[in-house]
Design brief:
It is a single chain. By secondary structure, the chain is an alpha/beta fold. Helices cover 29% and strands 19% of the residues. The chain has one domain: Collagenase (Catalytic Domain), CATH 3.40.390.10. It has eight helices and ten strands. The strands form three sheets. The protein has a six-stranded mixed sheet with strand order 1-8-9-5-3-4, with helices on one face. Strands 2-10 form a two-stranded antiparallel ribbon. Helix 1 crosses helix 2. The longest helix has 22 residues. The chain starts with 8 loop residues before the first helix and ends in an 8-residue tail after the last strand. The structure holds zinc ion.
Length: 273
């Protein structure tokens, strides 16, 4: 969608050497981001806590938009737990460091470093509105952000209702998914309460210029923090498509986030024992 990606040396070499790879790379320009929800079976849903409203974190309760620029809350989807809301702060974020394999190859080491720097900048941007902290260990994280290449996905949907003979292969530049789990708190020694919790996994491909990596991370972290939907305006970080001049976090993004956090959720409440 008008989004140009800088080709790397590696890509250019592949392009010359391998026609099959050249085919795939040409499709990389059709970038999309993907939201993936896990849906528990209906029997499990009945046992989930009732949805209730958590107190607004101070950073959001203090947020006021004097311009009254509006929001796109009506585009935010509810999931099995209603809204995806964090209730324990700071939210722990893990940013995948360069791996040993990457460190062994200067090109990959540099690319991984650029990626880490860009992602951490995006974490800091959101930290102003919701407290986040970067943790060293993936196991301690609420949100894990990784570089893993996303598999190409066949897209059989089509707007005019006809069946296409060939499905369109779409390469995704980023993806955010969440899963639910039961957290045992360690506050009480006996019979600690079990809290319905969620974890989010974000994948962002490393083969982009730093500015676009940061924009992709800004966008995906917005999903991870609870904006489970897209804006129709290019001036919002959660605009549905990648653009040449990516938007910063906008007042509309934060107005939307604040409205999400004013909603009831099943997350963060005790499960009946
Ligand atoms: Zn998105």
């Amino acid at each position: 969608m008008g989004f140009k990606r800088k080709k790397t040396m590696w890509f250019q070499r592949s392009l010359l050497n391998n026609m099959a790879i050249a085919f795939v790379i040409s499709l990389v320009f059709l970038t999309t981001t993907q939201l993936v929800s896990s849906v528990p079976p209906p029997t499990a849903l009945r046992q989930l806590p009732t949805a209730q409203v958590h107190p607004l974190p101070p950073s959001l309760s203090q947020w006021h938009d004097p311009q009254q620029s509006g929001d796109y809350f009506d585009q935010v989807q509810t999931v099995a737990v209603n809204y995806l809301i964090w209730s324990t702060f700071p939210v722990a974020v893990y940013v995948e460091p360069p791996t040993l394999v990457e460190q062994a190859v200067p090109f990959m080491a540099n690319r991984a470093k650029t990626w880490v720097t860009a992602i951490e900048k995006a974490v800091q941007e959101w930290n102003f509105y919701l407290p986040l902290k970067i943790v060293e260990q993936a196991k301690d994280a609420d949100i894990q952000i990784r570089r893993s290449a996303l598999p190409l996905r066949f897209n059989r949907s089509n707007q005019d209702g006809e069946n296409r003979k060939l499905p369109i292969l779409r390469a995704r530049s980023a993806e955010t998914r969440f899963e639910l789990y039961v957290k045992k708190t360690t506050v009480a020694a006996f019979d600690p309460p079990s809290i319905l919790s969620h974890r989010v996994a974000v994948s962002i491909r490393p083969d982009q210029a730093a500015e676009y990596l940061q924009a992709a991370a800004r966008h995906e972290i917005g999903h991870a923090l609870g904006i489970w939907g897209h804006s129709a305006q290019q001036t919002d970080a959660l605009y549905f498509s990648q653009v040449r001049n990516p938007a910063k976090i906008s007042a509309r993004d934060i107005n939307t986030l604040k409205r999400v956090y004013q909603q009831p959720t099943r997350l963060g409440w005790n499960l009946a024992s």
